[in-house]
Structures are given as C-alpha cells and as structure tokens.
C-alpha cells in the first residue's frame, strides 16, 4: 500500500472560498501560478490565500501583504574564485564522473554544509561545491542557518532604541550557498528556526541586553515572529523554491529519566543531555512548539514543507520516544502545521543508542503507519579508535541504508530525502578536524561507505528495471578508495 493511501485526515480547518486571481498574478513571484478555476482556500498566509489545482498550489484572489511591507533584499554574494580554497590541491576527477548518489537515489540525497562562520562554510570551497553539485541534490547548513548565526545583536538593540521589538537579521553568511543552489538546481533544507541550543541569550532578555532580566512570554513570541517573518520573507522573495524544506523546531522531546515533563503527553524536553535547561520550555512552557509552527505556517510559502526534527526517534527505552514523536506530530497535524518528520540518525558503531538495524526499521514502519512523511536527516555513523573502524563503519552504513531502501522496495513513498551530515573526513577548513564519519576522505575521494551505499542503490535500480547486477559489480572492498586520513550533546551538529 502506498504511503499516500495511509495519510490521515487530520486537518480541522474548514475550507473557505475566494475568487481566482485576475490578470495580475501576485503569486508568480514565488514561482506559484495563480488559480484558474478553483475558489477553495486550502491555506491562508500572510502573503495571500492559496488553493490547489491538479494537486499543485496556486494563488487565489489578490495579495494580502501590505504594500508598505517591503521584503529584505539579498546581500551581494562573494566572488568564490577569489577565496583561498583549502581543497584546491584535491584531484576530484573520479568523484565527479561516473556514479552519482543524486542520480541513483529514489529520493533527494543531501549533504551537510559544515563550518562555523562564513570563512569556513563549505560553499567557500569551489572544489568541494563542484563535488556536491555532481553527487548531491540537497544541502543543509549544519550551523549557518541557526539563530545564533542569523540574529544580529547590534541591529536588534538599535531596533529597541527606535521603539521596535524586532530582531535584526544578517543573511550574508549563507548567501553563497543560496546562490550556488539557485544556479545549479539544488535544494536546501532550512535548519533550524527554534532549538534549545545555539539561540543567543540576549534574544530572551529585556531590551536584548544580557545584563537585564528575561523578557515576558508574549514579548519573546513577538520577537520570534519578527525573526521568522524576516527569514521567510528573505527566502520567499529572493530564493523561492530553493529552501523548500525547513526544520521549524529541533529536539523538543526527551525520554531519558529526569530530563522530561510528560504532563504534555509527549515527553517534553526539560534538559539537554549535558544538564542545561531547555530555555524555551523554561521561559515560555511547552506551547513554544505549537506556537512556533503556527508562526512558520503563517509566513512560509505553501510549497515549503515544515518539519519537526529530532534525534534518537527510534529509541524505545527507558520510554517510547517513537510514540512520543507520533503523539506530538498528531497534535501539530490537527492544525495542519507540519508536513514531515526529520529523523536524525546519529548511530554509534557499537549500536549504543539503537539495538540493531531492525529497531531502526521498526521506527520507520511505525512512523509510516501513523501517516508521516519521513526525511532522514543528519545521518552519521560514529567511528572510534578500533583498528577495524573503517570496516565496521562501512558495514553500519550498508546495514542502515539497506533498511531505508528495503522500505522503499515495499512500495512506500514517504521517505522523501536522505542527508549525510558532512562532506569529507578531516574537514580541510579546520586545522585539527578528527571526523571520520563522512562518505569522502580528506582528499575528497570516495570511501568504502560511499561504495556500499552506491551498491545498494544500483541493486535497487537494477531490480526496478528487471536487470541483474553481476557479482563483480556488487563487491565492495574496504580497501577501495582508502587513503591515509588526518586525524561532537544530543546531536553533534554544534561543532560541525
């Protein structure tokens, strides 16, 4: 049975009606045509009402956006050719010819863009981006789109001085990646709007001043709405369709003892694994999740999927996190606020947080039975200091990716993307990066785990075509593509 046949009718919103748009089509600026015949309003946003024709979104009536509300313009991108490229010496000819993950996968195949500031974000490397263009069709900034990188403290204080309780924003750090994606037909997963980490403390303080006490609940939400509106306005008007997925809330559920409040019915996180408060829950309560999604739905284009993203969603001990995720998703779906689940997949080589690939498969099955679209995000197999780490890593990548493809083979179409959270081992923008979890090595050569995934994809496509794959084609030797390599919390994305 196809996933689309499993979808629940969760929306409690009644349809309203509007006239089809006239000669002037206001929604075309967002790459959305205007409706020709339908009058049913499927979604009402800040910019206007939208209906559907032939399963596609279309604009209805006139724009609802105030004329005086001018959207922000995009900063001028840098000249990448003029920047120092730490990967310039890498010969990537083998990595940008032949097999392509994006071409073989039955879903979007994405990669994380690493770095902690504009000077070391992956899009600053021409060679790295050339490889990404060939191998992937989706990208996610591991840090660049988080609030601590986008919110502008000085500008926000200036707004306060002018009597405006608004968060100032600075998108200059992500403009290179957005421009690259726009020019090359690559999509970006927005990550992330609301998280208990990497949100600047001054955002929550009176007058945006860290020396003052915390602001009241409604002031915090006024600020959050101003921030999310500015973010969506910037993307909607400058890069429509490029960032067509956004993680709205990140890691709001926790099932480890002493770190949750289950009075909500979905094990609301109260602390991080390190013992830090979930500041959103502490200051405004668990309603922050639903309220954040309401704001996002108000300003996002209907073509932008809104996602709840969480780590260890396959855990069932000491409490059932899979069910907690389903319960929260059902609350959000009841108001038509969420489109997909982001299933972070950080997996230890010794399977500390998941007993076996079968448990991973069981979580996917349960999410599917609940009618959820799934996006595999932040997929990472940790390595350790064992001598056979590369062999073990390759086996884990093979076993867990096989789970994903086996699900697709059953006829389900609800896994829409798969993202590995980083491009290369020993990230060349860092002097001392010891990561060895990626599909490409320090010299941007394919690793055995790359070949393991490609083998599974080729076998899948051969079966679809009724062909046979020779034993020689299927063999993945651990020695393939190996070179000497240089020697991250709930998830490890903070240091990526």
From TrEMBL:
<dbReference type="InterPro" id="IPR044846">
    <property type="entry name" value="GH10"/>
</dbReference>
<dbReference type="Pfam" id="PF00331">
    <property type="entry name" value="Glyco_hydro_10"/>
</dbReference>
<keyword id="KW-0677">Repeat</keyword>
<dbReference type="InterPro" id="IPR002883">
    <property type="entry name" value="CBM10/Dockerin_dom"/>
</dbReference>
<keyword id="KW-0378">Hydrolase</keyword>
<keyword id="KW-0732">Signal</keyword>
<dbReference type="GO" id="GO:0031176">
    <property type="term" value="F:endo-1,4-beta-xylanase activity"/>
</dbReference>
<dbReference type="Pfam" id="PF02013">
    <property type="entry name" value="CBM_10"/>
</dbReference>
<feature type="domain" description="GH10">
    <location>
        <begin position="102"/>
        <end position="456"/>
    </location>
</feature>
<dbReference type="GO" id="GO:0000272">
    <property type="term" value="P:polysaccharide catabolic process"/>
</dbReference>
<feature type="domain" description="CBM10">
    <location>
        <begin position="24"/>
        <end position="61"/>
    </location>
</feature>
<dbReference type="InterPro" id="IPR001000">
    <property type="entry name" value="GH10_dom"/>
</dbReference>
<keyword id="KW-0119">Carbohydrate metabolism</keyword>
<protein>
    <recommendedName>
        <fullName>Beta-xylanase</fullName>
        <ecNumber>3.2.1.8</ecNumber>
    </recommendedName>
</protein>
<dbReference type="InterPro" id="IPR017853">
    <property type="entry name" value="GH"/>
</dbReference>
<feature type="region of interest" description="Disordered">
    <location>
        <begin position="467"/>
        <end position="496"/>
    </location>
</feature>
<dbReference type="InterPro" id="IPR009034">
    <property type="entry name" value="Dockerin_dom_fun_sf"/>
</dbReference>
<feature type="signal peptide">
    <location>
        <begin position="1"/>
        <end position="18"/>
    </location>
</feature>
<comment type="similarity">
    <text>Belongs to the glycosyl hydrolase 10 (cellulase F) family.</text>
</comment>
<keyword id="KW-0624">Polysaccharide degradation</keyword>
<keyword id="KW-0326">Glycosidase</keyword>
């Amino acid at each position: 049975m196809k996933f689309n046949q499993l979808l629940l009718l969760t929306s409690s919103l009644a349809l309203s009606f509007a006239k089809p748009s006239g000669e002037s089509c206001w929604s075309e600026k967002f790459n959305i045509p205007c409706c020709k015949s339908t009058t049913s309003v499927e979604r009402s946003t800040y910019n206007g009402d939208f209906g559907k024709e032939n399963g596609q979104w279309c604009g209805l009536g006139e724009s609802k956006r105030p004329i005086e509300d001018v959207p922000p313009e995009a900063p001028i991108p840098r000249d990448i050719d003029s920047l120092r490229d730490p990967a310039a010496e890498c010969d990537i000819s083998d990595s940008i010819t032949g097999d392509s993950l994006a071409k073989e996968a039955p879903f979007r195949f994405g990669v994380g863009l690493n770095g902690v500031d504009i000077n070391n974000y992956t899009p600053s490397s021409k060679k790295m981006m050339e490889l990404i263009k060939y191998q992937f069709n989706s990208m996610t900034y591991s840090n660049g789109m988080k609030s601590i990188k986008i919110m502008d403290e000085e500008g926000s204080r200036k707004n306060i001085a002018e009597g405006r309780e608004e968060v100032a924003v600075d998108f200059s750090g992500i403009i290179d990646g957005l421009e690259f994606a726009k020019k090359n037909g690559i999509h970006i997963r927005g990550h992330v709007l609301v998280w208990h980490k990497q949100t600047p403390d001054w955002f929550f303080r009176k007058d945006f001043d860290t020396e003052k006490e915390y602001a009241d609940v409604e002031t915090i939400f006024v600020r959050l709405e101003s921030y999310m509106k500015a973010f969506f306005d910037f993307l909607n008007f400058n890069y429509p369709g490029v960032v067509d997925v956004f993680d709205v809330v990140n890691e709001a559920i926790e099932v480890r003892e002493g770190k949750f409040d289950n009075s909500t019915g979905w094990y609301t996180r109260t602390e991080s694994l390190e013992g830090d408060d979930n500041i959103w829950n502490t200051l405004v309560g668990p309603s922050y999740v639903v309220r954040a999604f309401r704001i996002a739905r108000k300003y996002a284009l209907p073509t932008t999927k809104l996602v709840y993203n969480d780590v260890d969603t396959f855990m069932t001990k000491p409490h059932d996190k899979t069910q907690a995720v389903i319960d929260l998703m059902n609350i959000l779906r009841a108001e038509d606020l969420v489109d997909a689940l982001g299933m972070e997949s950080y997996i230890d080589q010794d399977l500390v947080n998941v007993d076996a690939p079968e448990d991973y498969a069981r979580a996917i099955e349960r999410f599917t039975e609940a009618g959820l679209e799934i996006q595999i995000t932040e997929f990472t197999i940790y390595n350790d200091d064992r001598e056979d780490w590369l062999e073990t890593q390759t086996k884990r990548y093979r076993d867990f990716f096989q789970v994903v493809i086996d699900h697709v083979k059953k006829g389900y179409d609800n896994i829409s993307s798969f993202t590995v959270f980083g491009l290369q081992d020993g990230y060349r923008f860092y002097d001392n990066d010891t990561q060895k979890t990626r599909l490409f090595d320090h010299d941007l050569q394919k690793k055995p785990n790359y070949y393991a995934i490609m083998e599974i994809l080729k076998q899948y496509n051969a079966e679809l075509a009724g062909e046979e794959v020779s034993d020689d084609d299927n063999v993945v030797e651990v020695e393939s593509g190996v070179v000497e390599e240089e020697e991250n919390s709930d998830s490890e994305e903070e240091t990526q």
